[in-house]
Write a structure and sequence with these properties.
The chain is an alpha/beta fold and 127 residues long. Helix content is 17%, strand content 33%. The strands form two sheets. A four-stranded mixed beta sheet has the order 1-4-3-2, with helices on one face. The longest helix has 11 residues. It comes from Algoriphagus iocasae. Keywords: Dioxygenase, Lyase, Oxidoreductase.
Amino acid sequence: MFTNTKAFGGFSVDSLHDARIFYTEVLGMEVEKLPLGILALKISGGSQIMIYPKTNHEPATYTVLNFPVKDVEKTVDELIAKGIVFEQYVEPIKTDEKGICRGAGPLVAWFKDPAGNILSVVQDIGI
């Protein structure tokens, strides 16, 4: 039934203005404003992630968006230089002082967008 359809995901934020600035200026992504006050993050390969405003927004307690990168260490350093603060976890996973989880699969580090949604950079292992 859905073999030839392009699925897409989405998540809410409390401020589209702050989201647009964050995703374009901090993360360097292409963002398109769509009707009904929705933003579309342009993802490599033609996919899109919808970001929509929600007045009673509550940040997701799980990772809503993962960014595969060639070098997690370098990407974390570049994002820290832009003011990103990486999450520090102890249980059930442990991160180092930079916020990178090592030794439990591919390297991964989590951070939040201005609405508090959890994002990650993860070592690209060719999936």
